[in-house]
Amino acid sequence: MSANSDKLEGKVKETAGAATGDDSLKAEGKADQHAGTIKEKVGDAVDAVADKLKGK
C-alpha cells in the first residue's frame, strides 16, 4: 500500500474504533497512520539520495 492509503485506512479504522468503543481497532488505526508516515519519510529520503547521486 502507499503511504497515503495507509494513512487513510488508519484514520477510518481509528474513527470506527472510537465510534464503536473498540480500543483495539482504534489502536490499529493509529498504527496504520504511523506506518504511512514512516513510508512517506522513507520515500522522501530515497528521493533525496537519488537526487544527490544524480547531481541535483
Tally of structural domains: 1
The CA-CA distance between the termini, in Å, is 29 Å
Mean pLDDT: 96
**Number of β-strand runs:** 0
Proportion of residues in extended strands? under 5%
Range of helix content: over 70%
Helices and strands, in N-to-C order?
Answer: HH
Oligomer: single chain
Report the major sheet: none
Based on secondary structure, the structural category is mainly alpha
Number of separate helices = 2
Dominant shape? rod-shaped
Q: Rg, please? A: 15 Å
Unreliable stretches covering 5 or more consecutive residues: none
What does the model show?
The chain is mainly alpha-helical. It has one domain (3-54). It has two helices and no strands. The protein has helices spanning 3-20, 23-54. It is rod-shaped. It starts with a helix and ends with a helix. The model has no long low-confidence stretch (mean pLDDT 96).
Top keywords for this entry?
mainly alpha; rod-shaped; 56 residues
Sequence-ordered SSE layout with sheet pairings:
Elements: H1 3-20, H2 23-54
Provide a short characterization of the protein structure.
The chain is mainly alpha-helical and 56 residues long. The protein has one domain.
